[in-house]
Specification:
Rossmann fold; aldehyde dehydrogenase (NAD+) activity; 2 domains; 11 helices; alpha/beta; Epimerase_deHydtase; SDR family oxidoreductase; seven-stranded parallel sheet; about 20% strand; single chain; 12 strands; NAD(P)-bd_dom_sf
Length: about 290
């Protein structure tokens, strides 16, 4: 199949593009800069230069594809307003992509986060999270899944709090960056809260499987580690950087503070059984050993 991929040169997107190309698909990759276009071309994809705000370009990309995988997001968490703008931009983009695919029975694979369920690990049957700083993403994805009744094979891959590769990425990567800036490997609260995780190369396989065979209107969990304690994550970061490991105020993490402080384990049992997905790459705690001092 010829697949239109947004966000195809990021940590996750580059792994997804490589996975698609390695399994006989061709890729048209949305790229925001000349450097990203060159990276996409070097990987074997055809670049389409633009961004999520260019809705006409998104329509054109989807129109010429046999399926769409949406990964692009502004990832600006510097303030509540910045997060709101990023969510609004993405919501408009995926609405346009979905409308372009209506009636075609083509695949539309979108991305969101694993939901928070008090007292237990979330599962694929739990509804998407629609509250909090990025709750708008959950509402937009829910709308996309509803396109299953309009001839779109829409599915959602729910990513855990950390998607990692070579010791970087996701919430754990944020902890590492802040540790470098502050001289303390910190964690909010008592650090007993758990974050799920997955290696980017394992997540890429699940995106391909969903593209190829997932039924319309379904959600899947790209979870390899059900939940690592945040203080254990911070301990590895502190040891690798030679820094003290201490609790810090949740305000340290800006608008993401409430999310960072909550217990959010997640299960992928149904995903593994239904799609035959089995992670094979290093766990988060193992991969964090790649952090360079």
């Amino acid at each position: 199949m010829h697949i239109f991929v947004t966000g195809g040169t990021g940590l996750i997107g580059s792994a997804v593009v490589a996975e698609l190309l390695g399994n006989g698909h061709t890729v048209l990759a949305l790229t925001r800069s000349d450097a990203s276009a060159r990276a996409a071309e070097a990987a074997g994809a055809k670049p389409l230069q633009g961004d999520l705000a260019d809705l006409d370009l998104l329509r054109a990309g989807a129109a010429q594809a046999d399926g769409v995988i949406h990964l692009a997001f502004a990832n600006d968490f510097s303030s509540a307003d910045a997060v709101a703008r990023a969510v609004a931009e993405e919501s408009a983009a995926i609405a346009v992509l979905g409308e372009e695919l209506v009636g075609s029975d083509r695949a539309f694979v979108t991305v969101s986060g694993t939901p928070y369920v008090p007292g237990r690990a979330s599962t694929e049957s739990d509804p998407a999270s629609t509250d909090g700083p990025v709750g708008g993403r959950g509402r937009a994805i829910t709308a996309v899944l509803g396109l299953a009744s309009r001839g779109v094979r829409s599915t959602a891959i729910r990513l855990p709090r950390t998607v990692h590769n070579q010791g970087t990425g996701g919430f754990a990567g944020v902890l590492t960056n802040i540790a470098r800036q502050t001289g303390v490997s910190g964690y909010p609260g008592d650090g007993a809260q758990r974050w799920p995780a997955v290696h980017a190369l394992d997540a890429a396989v699940l995106f391909r499987l969903a593209l190829e065979k997932a039924e319309a209107g379904t959600s899947w969990h790209a979870v390899a580690d059900e939940g690592d304690k945040v203080r254990d994550i911070a301990a590895v970061i502190g040891r690798r950087l030679g820094l003290p490991v201490e609790p810090v105020p949740s305000e340290t993490y800006g608008p993401l503070g409430p999310i960072f402080a909550s217990d959010q384990p997640s299960s992928s049992t149904h995903t593994r059984e239904a799609l035959g997905w089995e992670p094979t790459h290093p766990s988060l705690l193992e991969d964090l050993e790649n952090i360079q001092p």
